[in-house]
Amino acid sequence: MTPQNQGIAGVVLAQTVLGTLGLCVLQADASPLSVAFYRCLIAALGLGIYAALRGDLVGLLRLPGRVLLLAILSGFLMVGNWVLFFEAIRRSGISVATIVFHVQPFLMVLVSALLFRERLRAVTFLWFGLALIGLAFATGITDLSGMAGGGSAIDGIGIAAAVAAAFLYALVTIIAKRLPRSGGLQLTLIQCLCGSVVLAPWLSLTPEDVTGEQWKWFATIGLVHTGAVYIMLYNALPKLPIAVAAVLLFLYPVSAIIVDAAWFRHPISLMQVAGFFCVLLASLGTTLEWGGRKSC
Is residue 207 over pLDDT 90? Predict the structure, then answer.
């Protein structure tokens, strides 16, 4: 098998597994803060053992001060992203939360333009407009008949949480691009350690109160959806052209939507499907810089 085929297989497997994250979060039946804490704690233990076996812990201790500070900052942001995303899943459902979360490529472009004065292309605004239309379809905002009753406020909070999570993840991505490319495992380990420390004081579900069933779901989220998935992605993505990687990364929301429909009997409507494809097309257009010349 060629390196590129190995990369494709790794990303496909990782993104498909990641699509079951929402299921595990809901089945754990705990607050977003608790789920995020145990995800960080268990993932940190698993990744720490993996890094020790590979001899990477020594490199962690030798990181330059600036790199370590940026990694810690990304850890705080990643923790906030996880908590908000889990809250979005709890309120809006797996499908809607996952689709809305995938506006992060646009947020990353806009934040980069503001922070680093990067030039935006005129076509970027067209892609952004298409993404907004897609979100309107995917979230059901355009379905006026469903606005009656008290459900819309809860959905609004969930959608806002997903957008906020996407914003924080965009900041994490921007920071990661300015860190050494070989430090993916170390970065994730630092993020999980930060999460364990930051969330511990706010923990309402102590280890003594966690049921055996909850430990199973927490362990799956920490070891599989964080440890194993991140390791697979760090090994696979460098082997792929950016265009191939950008397309394959959208297997995550596809997998999440299928899981939501199959497990919770929440079939996605045709309007939501149309919205998802609008977001997908706009995200690929932004990521791969389709069309037009740069403008101020």
Answer: yes
Q: Is residue 293 part of a domain?
A: no
Distance CA 8, CA 240 (A): 7
Query: Is residue 296 situated within a structural domain?
Result: no
**What percent helix, strand, coil does the chain show, rounded to 5?**
80, 0, 20
Q: Which amino acid is at 235?
A: N
Stretch (H or E) spanning 99: helix 94-101
Please indicate, yes or no, if residue 294 is contained in any of the structural domains: no
Which residues lie closer than 8 Å to 72 by C-beta, 6 or more apart?
Answer: 190, 194
Q: Tell me if 227 sits within 8 A of 21, measured CB to CB.
A: no
User: Rounded distance, CA 229 to CA 84, Å?
Assistant: 20
Q: Which of 199, 234, 210, 206 is nearest to 56 (CA)?
A: 234
The segment with the largest mean pLDDT, out of 33-37, 202-206, 269-273, is 33-37
Strand partners, 294: 121
Condensed to tens digits (0 to 9), the pLDDT of residues 101-146 reads: 988 888 888 888 888 877 777 888 888 889 889 888 887 766 544 4
pLDDT, tens digit, 9 for 90 and up, residues 216-249: 999 999 999 999 998 898 888 888 887 788 888 8
Side chain identity at 107, as an amino acid letter?
Answer: L
Residues in the chain: 296
Q: For residues 94 and 261, what is the distance between their CA atoms, to the nearest angstrom?
A: 9
What tokens does 10 get?
Answer: 């790794």
Domain that holds residue 55: 3-287
272: part of which helix (H) or strand (E)? helix 270-287
Tokens standing for 129? 């407009």
Q: Could you give the number of structural domains in the chain?
A: 1
Residue 27 predicted with pLDDT over 70: yes
| Block residue for tokens 């779901």 | 217
pTM: 0.88
- Which of 112, 233, 229 minimizes the C-alpha distance to 170? 112
